[in-house]
Structure formats: C-alpha cells, structure tokens
Amino acid sequence: MADFSNIDGLPPLRDVIAAHGLSAQKALGQNFLLDLNVTAKIVRLAEQARGPDGFAGVHVIEIGPGPGGLTRALVKSGARGVSAVEFDRRAVDALQGLEAAAAGRLVIVQGDALETDLTGLCEAPRAIVANLPYNIATPLLLGWLSQVRADPQAFSSMSLMFQKEVAARITAGLGSKAYGRLSVMAQWLCKVGRLMDLPPSAFTPPPKVVSSVVHFMPRVLDSDAPSFQAVERVTAAAFNQRRKMIRTSLKDYMAGVEALGLDPQARAEELGVQDFVKLACFHDFDVKHKKN
Ligand code: SAM
Fold first, then answer.
1. In the chain, N or C: fewer CB atoms in 10 Å?
2. What is the pLDDT of residues 129-151, one digit of tens each?
C-alpha cells in the first residue's frame, strides 16, 4: 500500500483557503469542493469508468485545482503523475504545500487552460479530470474534442464537471429537447455517460444549479472520418435553425441529404449523430474533390 500520510497530514482545505486569502471569485468560476469524501468519490468513479486498470500508468491532467481538494484525491489515485493548470496565482501559492507533500507526483502550472496545449504537459496516456470553471467549460470541451479528432491518443479519458443542464446537452439522445450541436460533437468522438450529480450545497460557495460529472471515452474512428470543422459546420447550420426543416436549414447540403436518403422535411433534432457525420463526410469529400 502506498503511504499517503504526507497528503493526509495537510491542513483542512478551509484553513488553506483562509491562510492564502483564496476568497472565491465569480469571474473565475470558483466553486470549491471542500469535502474530501466527495473528491475521492469523483476520482473513484472516474477510475472505474475507465475499466479495471483505472489510472494505473496514466498521467492525469487537472484544470483549475483551486485549493486542491480534487488534486489531493488524484495524487492518491493510481495515476503515474498529476499536472494541474491553474490561472489564479493565489491558488498556485496555496497549492505549494500539496506539491511538496506529493513528492514529485504533482506539477502545478500557472496558466490559462484555454491557451494551454495539455498534450505538451506530459506523455500519453493522459486523462483529464476537472471540476471546470463553468464560464469556459464548453469552449474547453470543444477544444479537447477537436484534439481527440486530430489525435485519438491525445486523451484516453476525460471526467469533467459541468452544470447539469450542459451535461444534459452533452449526453442527450435523438428526439430529446437537449439534443443539439454539443450532443453530436461529443457523441461522435466519445462514448459519454453521466457519473454523478452534485447538489449546490456540495460547493463553497454554492452555485445556483445542480452539477454533473460526465465521463468521455474517445472512440476509434474510421480512417475516412470527416474533419472536426466539417461536422461543426453542418451541426451549426442545422441547429441554428432547429425549428426549420432541413431542406431550409441545410440547403447547402441538399446533395448529401438526397444521396443519403434523408427526409428533407425532417428537423435537425430528428437526425442522428451518424447522419450528421455522413453529411459532413459527403460534403467534406465534395469540397476536397472540387479543390483538386
Ligand atoms: N478543482 C477545485 C475544486 O474542485 O474545488 C476548483 C474548481 S473551480 C469550479 C474552477 C477552478 O478553475 C478555479 O480554481 C479557477 O481559479 C480555475 N480557473 C478559472 N479559469 C481558468 C483558466 N482559464 N485556466 C485555468 N484555470 C482556471
């Protein structure tokens, strides 16, 4: 059994916050998890969702460690190492004690996650685990999904906390009200599933909404899969006018609609993930073909 007495001997997170003046800032999406049973459970579920080996041999990247509750659980997991990217200099200072106690298994990087190429932080296999700042959660996710499209080895799993409503959009199935661009992009590239919900009271300060952890496992794609941008373009066109029939919203894609035998009177929410992928593929090919 590994000895985590250094980590377990650290001061309670509330004391770390007080000692470093780490009052929560709304602009940075700071809603902290201070119950170490909760952070341990998130890591346990994220490991279980990967399979029997969990994080063994995997380098875990955390976005926004804040005072370090989730980080403590990650350092104590079976991960090969942990790299954590934090924007707030006060939090980076507050994490120095944990970094020292982790004895080389934790590296804190001060920076903006939106500007950081996470694959440059460590060798594959890599996993991302984060209680995300909600104001930038969707652009962060889309950036990582686009990296997964370009390189299926970029991340072997992602376990991410979102507002429940965003989690519902990611995991929504065909015909559901929440089904849209985010559902198609996420489910095309990854198997997705909700791991757990957390009430506002689990956070300090409590956000207005319930939160959910979503687990993503990248899929192996066909070698002729369309580009990320091609699928983004067709889903944007369809869902930006989701009440319209696709003969209107996808008028630039009618050759594909016909070739694939889709009903021109259908609405975007009636097209499955693979319908969008095939449409993108058809027109991606068309674009490439015309260029050559
Ligand atoms: N992981 C901690 C926890 O669970 O208690 C904090 C989570 S809090 C919801 C989001 C964290 O992301 C904060 O620590 C915040 O400072 C950090 N953050 C906000 N914007 C960021 C950015 N652009 N890049 C990196 N970290 C950011």
1. N
2. 999 999 999 999 999 999 999 99
Give which of 255, 251, 257, 252 is closest to 276, Cα–Cα: 257
pTM for the complete prediction?
Answer: 0.96
Rg of the chain taking only CA atoms, in angstroms: 21
Q: Is 26 in the pocket of ligand 1 (CB under 6 A)?
A: no
Average pLDDT in the chain: 95
* pLDDT score of 289: 54
Final residue before a domain boundary, out of 218, 241, 275: 218
Q: What span, in angstroms and rounded, lies between the C-alpha atoms of 69 and 203? A: 11
Say how many Å lie between the CA of residue 284 and the centre of ligand 1: 37
Q: What is the β-pairing status of strands 59-63 and 81-86?
A: parallel
* 91 in any annotated domain: yes
Identity of residue 132? L
- The helix (run of H) or strand (run of E) holding residue 211 is strand 211-218
Whether residues 213 and 261 fall in one domain: no
Taking a C-beta distance cutoff of 8 angstroms, is the pair 162, 137 a contact?
A: yes
**136 within 8 A of 146, measured Cβ to Cβ:** no
> Helices 181-189 and 137-150 meet at what angle, rounded to 10?
40
Q: Are 77 and 54 in contact (CB under 8 A)?
A: yes
Any ligand 1 atom below 6 A from CB of 162: no
**Which ligand 1 atom is the nearest neighbour of the CA of 30?**
8
Amino acid found at 165? E
**Residue 69 · residue 43 · CB < 8 Å:** no
Q: Is the CB of 63 under 6 A from ligand 1?
A: yes
Beta bridge partners of 108: 84
Count CA within 13 A, CB hemisphere, residue 10: 28
Rounded distance between C-alpha atoms, residue 239 and residue 279, angstroms: 14
Q: Positive or negative CA dihedral for 43, 48, 49, 54? A: positive
Whether residues 37 and 103 share a domain: the answer is yes
Residue 186: domain span: 5-218
